[in-house]
Specification:
The structure is a single chain. The protein contains two helices and two strands, in the order αββα. The chain is mainly alpha-helical. The chain has one domain. A two-stranded antiparallel ribbon has the order 1-2. 0% of the residues are buried.
């Protein structure tokens, strides 16, 4: 089973690599991105798309970690309250 899982992961990685190579070869025209303050140097469209996708994924991961930490704190507080209520109920 572990061999099959490793093989599937390797095949998916190879597929992603092939798709990435095809994507970058089809979108190789250089484009300069002009932000309001600065103008970024010309790079291929594929690079800009991959950079924006990566930055979006990182921003989502950071936002999720903040939400997740808040939920963990709430869960700990509620679990503490449940334990206190159970210990008070057992004492009676």
């Amino acid at each position: 089973m572990k061999f099959i899982k490793t093989l599937l992961i390797a095949l998916l990685a190879l597929l992603a690599l092939v798709i990435g190579i095809l994507f970058s070869s089809r979108n190789s025209a250089p484009v300069a991105v002009d932000m309001l303050i600065i103008q970024l140097p010309p790079m291929s469209i594929a690079v800009w798309i991959l950079v924006s996708f990566t930055l979006g994924a990182v921003a989502s991961a950071v936002a999720y970690s903040f939400v997740n930490q808040g939920q963990k704190r709430t869960n700990k507080r509620l679990l503490r309250q449940v334990n206190e209520m159970q210990s008070q109920g057992a004492a009676k």
